[in-house]
Each structure stands twice: as C-alpha cells, then as structure tokens.
Design brief:
With 243 residues, this protein is mostly beta strands. It has no helices and 23 strands. Helices cover 0% and strands 55% of the residues. InterPro entries: G-protein_beta_1-5 (IPR016346), WD40/YVTN_repeat-like_dom_sf (IPR015943), WD40_PAC1 (IPR020472), WD40_repeat_CS (IPR019775), WD40_repeat_dom_sf (IPR036322), WD40_rpt (IPR001680).
Length: 243
C-alpha cells in the first residue's frame, strides 16, 4: 500500500496488509539480484498505509491502527509512537519541503499538521465529508492538497488555517484515491475510481481535463521531482508514465 525511496536513493521502504514496514538496501543485493532486506519493522496492529524517510537512519510511518511512528533504523526501534493520532485509520502523509513538518489524512475525514521538532499536532483541518485518501504538500511549503472519497480535492492554506479552494470534476461520480501537485504547484492532479487522472489549474480554479487510458481504478499517483512526468498505478495491473 505504500512505498518510498530515501532521499539519498540508497534505501527503499514498503508495506501494506502485512502490517509491517520492510526496508531494503538497493546497493546491497543477493545472488538473484534482489535488494537485501535490512530491517523489518513490526508491531503494527493495522495495515501500513504510509512511510516516508526523514534520512537514511530514520523513517516516519502511518498505519491503520491510528498510529504515527518514527523509527531508528540502525537500532530497529521506535523513537516516537503517537497513539490515537487520528480517530480513524491514518491513510496518507506528506512531508514538508524543509522536512520540519508533515501532514496526515485519515478516514476520520480530517487532515492534521504535525511538527517533527516536538512531535505534536499543531493544526486540524476540516471540510471533507468522507475519507481523506491522499495529501500532498505544496512546493512552497505553505499549503497542501487533498484527494477524498467524497469526490472532491481541496487546497488548505496552513498560515490562514483554512480551506482556500475546492476542486470538483465535471461529472461528480467517483472518489479520489491519490493526489499530486505539479513542480510549480499550479496544477493539482487526482487519481480517481473512474479510471482517469483529473487535472485542475489552481490559478484559474478550473478543471483542465483528464488523463485517460487505465481500465480500472487508479490507486496511486506520483509527480517526478523535475515536474516532467506523472506516474500512475491501477487495478488494471498497469503502471503508466505520462509526459
């Protein structure tokens, strides 16, 4: 359900319904060429929904047991264990550009802003009417976008502590599973149950069309760091790269 690269490119972490986070060293491979496992982080009582490296030695996770954890990978131990971080499953998270804060989305219909410097929740954002399946920090670090089961995407401004935009598709028939922002932050992209990626122009607050081609639900979406491409995964068993 989740996969993440360390910023150095040396490690990959993943997890899901196995209720653990597995960390691989991509520079250390076995005789078959597969990356070797360096850590299996156990102790979750629900699925692993999100994982993000803070550095090569530290990883942040969110899970279906309503917990947020920070792990010391060298010791293989939790350094922070936030119980009841949300009133429901933690299903998504996004790190700020400066790595000082992160945002989480939950099935409790809220988003929360957390400060990594003292590991506390600073703000709670309301408005969604169903699960918040995806959150994505704006490149400027002052806002974040969401994708929700309520068939909307929203933009929240952190400084003003409020929703500043609502994005809806022309035919409001399917929920959004994933969201991303373009390199400049001008465009919001959301993967949908209707098999397509919806795009909005945040400057004009208008729907700019769809990327169509998948034949089933889009489960995840990622924008490349240089802003030149978007990758999507789907239940149709295909991964597509859009340029």
């Amino acid at each position: 359900m989740s996969v993440a690269f360390a910023q150095s490119g040396n490690y990959v972490a993943c997890g899901g319904m196995d209720n653990m986070c597995t960390v691989y060293d991509v520079n250390n491979r076995d005789s078959t060429g597969a990356a070797k496992i360096v850590r299996e982080l156990l102790g979750y009582e629900g699925f692993l929904s999100s994982c993000r490296f803070l550095d090569d030695k530290t990883i942040l996770t969110g899970s279906g047991d309503m917990k947020i954890c920070i792990w010391d990978l060298e010791a293989g131990k939790k350094t922070i264990d936030i119980d009841q971080a949300h009133a429901g499953d933690v299903v998504s998270m996004s790190l700020s550009p400066d790595n000082n804060t992160f945002v989480t989305g939950s099935v409790d219909r809220t988003c929360k802003l957390w400060d990594l410097r003292d590991n506390t929740c600073k703000q709670i954002f309301f408005g969604h009417q169903a699960d918040v399946n995806s959150v994505c920090y704006h490149p400027n670090g002052f806002a974040f976008a969401t994708g929700s089961e309520d068939k909307t995407s929203r933009m929240y401004d952190i400084r003003s502590d409020q929703q500043v935009a609502l994005y809806e598709p022309p035919n409001k028939t399917s929920g959004f599973t994933s969201c991303g922002l373009s390199f400049s932050g001008r465009f919001v992209l959301c993967g949908s149950d209707d098999h397509s990626v919806h795009i909005w122009d945040t400057m004009k607050n208008q729907h700019n069309g769809c990327l169509a081609g998948h034949e089933n639900r889009i489960t995840s979406l990622s924008v490349s760091t240089n802003g030149m491409a978007v990758t999507t995964c789907s239940w149709d068993q295909y991964v597509r790269v859009w340029g």
